[in-house]
Amino acid sequence: MTNFAFLMDLLEISAKEFSKTGFDHTLVSRWRAGKRRLMPGRRQAAITAKLFMETDAKREFPVLEKLVQIWYPTQPYGMEAEKQELLEMFLTEKGQTEPDYRKKREVRLECLRNYSEAAPAAPQGIEAVRLGLLDFLDLIGGLPEPTQISFVFTEGLAIYLDDSDFGRMITKKLMELFEAGHRMLSVMRSDSAMRDAWYFQKIKLYAHLKGYITTQYYDEYEQQGSEKILGTAGDKLAIKVTRQRLTEANDTRMNIYNDSKKAAEIGAAIKKYISRSRPLAYYGFFDKPDGWLNNISIQKDKPGYLFARMPHFSLATPEELAKYFALTNDEAALVMREFRPIALEPCFFNEDVPVRHVFCETDIEDALMKKRHQSHELSAMLGRKVWMSTKHLAQQLAKIQKLSKTCKNYEVCFLDHAQFNELLVQIGVWGNEAAISWIENRPALSCKNYLLVSSMQSLCVKAWNEIPAEIRSRRAANRKLDRWEKHLRIS
Questions:
Q1: Is 119's pLDDT higher than 50?
Q2: pTM of the full structure
Q3: Structural domain span for residue 77
Q4: Cα 188–Cα 176–Cα 91 angle in degrees, nearest 5
Q5: What CA–CA distance (Å, rounded) separates 270 from 44?
Q6: Mean pLDDT of the chain
Q7: How far apart are CA 244 and CA 96, in angstroms?
Q8: Are 413 and 481 contained in the same domain?
Q9: CATH at 271
Q10: I want to staple 472 with a disulfide (CB 3.0 to 4.6 A). Which of 230, 413, 420, 426 is the partner?
């Protein structure tokens, strides 16, 4: 179907009506099927748009003004000439028969098929919601200036992210919006984080660390109304997803609005959720730990993960850490008080509990070529440049080598620069009690909420399993460690 055919069917115009304007039946059929395109700036497009507008004006509930308002939200459409121009643009757009374009048109304009002032229709089903969310992001991308995007999710996103193609498309669109300057506030139930698909979790965590997204959580698990997603962008665009029968996914309905009154109504509902939510993560952890992880008690029966560029942490005792980084007594006491998990060695955990570390072999090899290298994490925490000598790095590598051969529950993997960058973030998770994540030149994030830490642990498990087995095998790790040991011995 083309946009021409969509309007013919929407306005119930027969091919005979076009014969009065001089267009024969064959030409109309070609326009309908997309075998011939209405070209912009041509007389045929202008005459066709005018006929549609005249027919629409006779309807009880005219729809074309609503159509151009939905399709071109950033364009003026108050004057008849402006409406005519936008309608010609709609009729002459490229790629109208392509699958993606057809889906976008179906979702964005489905409400017009049974439109009345009293009860506009709403697309229904999970697939319609997925397409609607993508379309909503497209509309935001068409806004003239970056804006604040606000979302409320009253259930886990897994029901929508179960489709991996959709998950990748929506994360791609979100990143494009963020890079264009848009920012997002999301409000979620605190038990929903564990249900996200892992690739979405990874990109979402990266977006939080970049400052693109802030998230707050609320705990009212039992108060599950019909509203599932609420969203606004700017002062006109809004989206609302509802489900009356809570267990029936196909009963899910989606409405997109380009109306200041409706956007204000949905925005007011979002503010109510914001007022009873709170952040569960702490930003700026390395720069100002502020007692966030003081008195944390890590359980020994839950896994530990560390994905970091350099093997600085979770391998050495407090005394070794102080020596390796030349810390003063006061500095060592501060680090152990504020950042105790970094001094928990793999042997701290029970013998049957996995402890998995991933490091960047490219960064290690670069450091081995120098006399010393900087720990950016400890430098941020202590307010001065903190260094580790190559001698002490060699001792850390020797400890890893020993653990890899003697500790059954310890697994280590070394990735090259490109492979490590695919992880997007550096992250440490200790049991279900503490997690820290960071990227270069941005404030670190830390959390100690059980559900969020468990979610980050789940992310680590899935990211570890995504690494090819031959790369994360003990044999591969020991081969690299043996090579570095030989290099250090010779040098």
A1: no
A2: 0.78
A3: 3-95
A4: 105
A5: 46
A6: 88
A7: 34
A8: yes
A9: 3.30.870.10
A10: 413
